[in-house]
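User: Hi! I'm working on a homework problem where we have to compare a predicted structure to a textbook description. Could you give me the structure for the chain below?
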Amino acid sequence: MALFPSRTIAWYTARMFIIRAAAFLIGLIIILESLDLLGESGKILAAAGNGEAELWTYVSLRVPQLIQLFLPFSVLLATLITLATLNQNSEVVIFKAAGLSAHQILLPLLIAAFGVAVANFAFNETVTTRATRTLKVWQENDYARVPPEKLLTTESWVRGGNDLFHAETVRGVGANTVLSSVTIYDRLDDRLIRVVMAGTARPVANGWQLTDVTSFDVGSGRRTVEPTLFFESSVVPRQFTTASINPAFVPLWELWPQIAEQRAAGKPVDPLVAAAWHKISGPLSTVLMPLLGAVAAFGLARSGRLFVRAVIGMFLGFAFFVADNFMLAMGNFGTVPPLMAAWAPFLLFLLIGEAVLIRTEE
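Assistant: Happy to help. Predicted structure tokens:
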């Protein structure tokens, strides 16, 4: 009844699994990053002042994305190779003859995979999100050198009543919100009355306090310059700070408060909720790989069906990735509830893996 009847066997199988997973991940990253760099190096070097250092900068920003994407695939391949090797060498037969059940044989792999999932989650939320945002800004600037302050820039359009606000930069939240390079299209009954341009705008009661103001009256054609101006409007700061959220750019612990702000602003949040839950279920999918690949571990190697079993395990693993991406896309379209979009594939294939293992081995 012990979880690990033999610590030696548990450590032996877990070490085999982790070493192979790391080897597959490193190999995939080297190959895919080399191909990716060949395709992007021309664009990077085309920007004035770029050289070898910028190529390495691109690699450092792109590698975290590849790790996030291909770590589950590496765990799946490592599972199949580890279990197929144990089967081929009749080590699985020895384990079972020593009294270990199928679940006890797989448990070290499952625990190691859970540790990989935790490390993957921490890496994604602390490194990958920041690298993804930095790379996106750099690519939108055609790989030219980006000033550090531009990384904080958020262009935003907001509508309040008939009026339209456009801000080049949005900083701060709530009463501390500061808009820079603001253009306000003052409209009445869908008719443009005037255009107000300001250097900065800060929220005050019932409106915004503008500085460095230039106004253009459409009816009279008169241009007015003023140091300050109060503009009455129903637009509130959170309409700017919740205008656009890309979950790939935001760590999970910052994403949930932003989702709450979106919901308070009356904006749809189901795609964001699905993406937030998937930040947990995505890395946790590595725990499924030993279970789905377990079909390659059992059965007599002499039967000649070891390759067929490995193919079945690979099919189950890739079927999970297809179902996971499909459900996440359905969640983004609002077709299915967010929790179902994030967790349904995980739970479904967990049951499939357990059913196959119990029916065939237990």
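For your comparison, note the following. The chain has two domains: 7-145+272-361, 155-241. Confidence is low (pLDDT under 50) at residues 149-153. Good luck with the assignment!
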